[in-house]
Amino acid sequence: MLYSTLRCASLMQDSAVELREELINRLSEIRVSGGNEADTRFKIIDDILLHVLGWNKTDFEHEVRVSEDGKDFFIDYLITTAQTSLLVEAKRAQIDFSRVPNGRAALKGVWLKGDLKKAVKQARDYGRNKGVGFCAVTNGDAWIIFPVNRRDLVSFEDTYAVCYQDIESVLNTDLDSFKAILTRDAVIDGSLEQALLGGDSNQSENRRLNQIYDSSFSKINRQTMFASIEDEIVTAFSEELIAKNPDLLQKSYVETADRIKFDDRVTMAVLRRDQVINTRPLKPVGRTGVAKAASEVISTHLKTQSVALLTLGLVGAGKTTFLNYVEKVSGRDFFDQNKSQPTAHWLYVDFRSFSKSQSPREFVYEALFKYICSNALLGDYELTIKPAYKDDIEALTRGPLAILKGNSAAIEEKISQLLLRDYEEKIPYSRKILAYTSRKTPLFLVIDNVDQIEEAAIQENIFLEAVAVARDNGVNLVLAMRDATYVKNRTSAVFDAFTFDAIYIDPPHIQSVLSKRFAIAEHLLRGKSFELTSDGGAKVIIKDAARVVEMLSASVLGTEVGNLIEVSATGDVRLALQMTKQFLQFGYSTSYRAYQAFENTGNYKFPVHEAIRAIMFGNQSIYRDEFSPFLNPFDAKTGRSESQFLRLYIMNALVSAASTKTFQGLEAGEIVSSLERLGFSQRITNKVISDLVSGRLCFSRSHQGYTLESVLVPSRLCGYLCRELAGKMIFLENALFDTFIYDDVVWNTVKVDMKSVYRENNLVAKFRTRKKITSSFFDWVEQEMQKLCAEAARRNLGPFWTSNPMTRLRVDFNAELERALRSAVRNYGSDKEKELLGLPLFKNSDGAY
């Protein structure tokens, strides 16, 4: 194999040497024979572009027409990819380029004279006409490479070029440098920008609205009831507070997992990740599932040797909740420490407070020591400490302390010193107590939230220390971790120490979780009353606060809002609860006006746009995607305008591929290869895909970290963003606040119109301007996405890469704008405005039009 590789490399090197010699000879012949420009191109430049620099024929066009001052000219080579454009102006080999220096040189001075200066300016003018980023001028011998259409206000004369003075420099002495700046792979990875502009970012200006405004133009000025029910809502929707109350924990636990396989609404397959363990795990689902799984844990007290359990699941699936349920609900009779003789002990160690500067061993023993000291039985001298040290005490009195026989006070003093020394050191004291107790009573060492520590080496060390503590003290071990954490560590020695049984926690149905949390809030508020001020300024009393929760529950569960929260959470219960709390706090949800409508009709539905806005904002006053559950699909945050829409482009390809029920995922290597054909480097694509994974828009089926071998699957959130939310006005107008708008016309239009929105008090006039802004933004996104689709079609990439998601959404988007306008006029417009839209001018007696 090694010989074959070396032989292949040798042949390639020989071939390169032969090509170099052949090109040098051809150039000499053209000069002697008086060959024309076409000879120079076909015999020299074509081979350099294709065989030395690795460009594909599909990357460039010949003889591209340029019209200027009523005359037509032709560009020799126009090289374009999705990210870079390069114009190559070819001249006859006989044109004098002898003054070209080697290296960097400003485009002025004695070297730039005569035909050479004319050729450089000609290339510059053609480049400006076609909006090209870079130009190269060559006579087949020397090469001058320089930028055009600069945005940094540097004049053309002060611009620096990279020069190669002859073909010997290009193909021999400076070949590595030449290839580093002009090969296809180098160019799509930003080599021209780095070499000629000092960096590959072309988005240095302040062109994000959230850099201008620090809060939304949409302010909800309604009188809110949330402050009056906040404590109960926070309790009901808090994992930590629920976990402390066994009764609430039992009421809130959801046993039914989410089983959606195909989402008909966005027509995409919803695939699950691969199972990470070889054996079939126990799953706490169904009516008896959780009881069976819990009994698997607590029944270990009947076994003669220590066991180890893995509790696995995705982020936020409910692993910690399950562990709390085992301890405080299913195993309450076993772990109740109020009894004089508990059946078992639950030694819970939470690594969320772990510091990397700490020793994992000391951290575990510190938690165990605190449990021992606080426990009435384990901290009792007569019941536990004395018998735990019985052998040590007998050995001392029989040995070193025998000399003090008869002096019981002195012996007890020495024994107390021994106990105190161990107590102060904590670890030896804890080991004595645990080892003694484990011979009489089952102990469960529960290690949770190790996933909060990202470094694999630290994770492995924690698991090793946990196993060591469990073995040393004869305790049962329960490890809770994400699937990805297990995959990362399963080949380590940790999982050879015990035979692990597995319990797998599937993500529950989010709306079922919310239903139980609303029921808890309703229970906590039943019979309570509170006073508030209505929008009109009157004092009103809500006699039963539980009715407010009934309204909230009815307006979320089974509605568009509930579906939005469920899809956005991607199976993460903690995130779903957080989003719901934020929506209740900042949305329409708790206005007195909403409550009145609910009381009068028995029915009230939250406006979906309020839910979208509240969820998008998170705890911010304006949209910033780094703080939002929604990643911005319209800005890949690469710093380059050409790759800005790669998030949406890749998302759409994944969702399009998942539209068939036979879909099993797309290989990351296939995505990278396709985008390299378009002109995006692997570095850029990897960055974008990694962002999509961390933003919960796609995932690797294997649970492993992202690599080129990963098989990627879109989440339901990805499908909804591509096929629904990206066409909704409220999503677009908030997302554009964190989108770099590089088009000058669009940016100036949006910036001016947005000032008007912030100033305008008339709600209908304000809406019309918002509608205009959103339409401009939608049109621009569709136009830029179409450029990518057209480039993909030109390179025959296939249907996943040639469909424009914005075009697909166009009809629905226009219809929604019209509906929203009619709603704004109906609610806030003048009679004249209503008449123009054909709306009725008066309400019926029931309040409807």
What attributes does this structure have?
single chain; 849 residues; alpha/beta; 7-stranded mixed β-sheet; 5-stranded parallel β-sheet; 19 strands; flat; disordered N terminus; disordered C terminus
Task: Give an overview of the whole structure.
- The protein is α/β, with parallel strands linked by helices and 849 residues long.
- Strands 1-2-3-5-6-7-4 form a 7-stranded mixed β-sheet, with helices on both faces. Strands 11-12-13-10-14 form a 5-stranded parallel β-sheet, sandwiched between helices.
- α19 (456-473) links the parallel β12 and β13.
- The longest helix is centred in the first third of the chain and has 32 residues, at 2-33.
- The protein starts with a helix and ends in a 13-residue tail after the last helix.
- The model is unreliable at 1-12 and 842-849 (pLDDT under 50).
Number of helices: 37
Low-confidence stretches: 1-12, 842-849
Structural class: alpha/beta
End-to-end CA span: 81 Å
Shape field = flat
